[in-house]
Amino acid sequence: MTVLVNLIVALGMLYAVPAGLRLIDPARLGTAARLWPWAAAPGALSPWLPRGTAATVLAALYAAAALALLGAAGARLRRRPGRSGGRRLPEPSEVAVLTALASPSVAAVALVAERAGYRLFGFDLDVLALTVPHFHFAGFTAALVAGLVCRSASGDHRARWAAYSVPGGTLLVLAGYFVDDWAELLGAVVLTAGMWTVALVTWRELRAAAPDRTSGALLASSAAVLVATMLLALWWAAGEATGIVHPTLTWMAATHGLGNALGFALCSLLAWRRLGAGRAPDARPAPART
């Protein structure tokens, strides 16, 4: 499981985050996206080393970049003006984007603690290790895609609901770590409902409107994979809460984790990159050439 999780973490750090930053805001976050692999490389290397000082320092370098991204989320939130110059609540697509920008910091803090061998908040080191890929994919990528879907299907109430429920479910799962397995199950239910809604809108609306077959196939694959991977997430969370037979963490990493990383996240990001940043939640279309 360790090798597989490390590879998934590397994919999240080295590709998912910088690709997502370009989709969120190419103008303001373009430099961060270009520099991100340099900050992510120490973080991606850290899990391959034995726990100790060297691994912790590498993880801390990544954490510094992730916390800077959290600061960018705060600055982005402060820039949201109200209709008369005051402040207003962010739109659902913006809530999803802000969640995406904040998620790597949660993953990075967990990585630093796990590499140091420190049971942060009393959590087992295996739980901390799995928190890292979870908040790169269920946190960053899933929230980002929910925001992109909402932006592209802004008139669809299902897309708006998904843009709220995916971040909400992610936060509930995080809260469940501190409460109990039943709270985590509630988070899994909300997150699954949101992700299945993302899949539904992607399949029925965006796939059909894709400008080429490759983009359509990537969108279709990402939507189809979510049906299976999130069902596994529900099964695991229900098993932890009720004691029914459920997959082991190793099996979940090989199925749910790998499926979400490759089948959902990678296909989604490649598809949205082909569609262009013009459909990103806060993107503005480029001026027409004359």
From TrEMBL:
<feature type="transmembrane region" description="Helical">
    <location>
        <begin position="161"/>
        <end position="179"/>
    </location>
</feature>
<feature type="transmembrane region" description="Helical">
    <location>
        <begin position="125"/>
        <end position="149"/>
    </location>
</feature>
<protein>
    <submittedName>
        <fullName>YndJ family protein</fullName>
    </submittedName>
</protein>
<feature type="transmembrane region" description="Helical">
    <location>
        <begin position="185"/>
        <end position="203"/>
    </location>
</feature>
<dbReference type="InterPro" id="IPR025450">
    <property type="entry name" value="YndJ-like"/>
</dbReference>
<feature type="transmembrane region" description="Helical">
    <location>
        <begin position="54"/>
        <end position="75"/>
    </location>
</feature>
<feature type="transmembrane region" description="Helical">
    <location>
        <begin position="215"/>
        <end position="237"/>
    </location>
</feature>
<dbReference type="Pfam" id="PF14158">
    <property type="entry name" value="YndJ"/>
</dbReference>
<feature type="transmembrane region" description="Helical">
    <location>
        <begin position="249"/>
        <end position="272"/>
    </location>
</feature>
<keyword id="KW-0812">Transmembrane</keyword>
<keyword id="KW-1133">Transmembrane helix</keyword>
<feature type="transmembrane region" description="Helical">
    <location>
        <begin position="95"/>
        <end position="113"/>
    </location>
</feature>
<keyword id="KW-0472">Membrane</keyword>
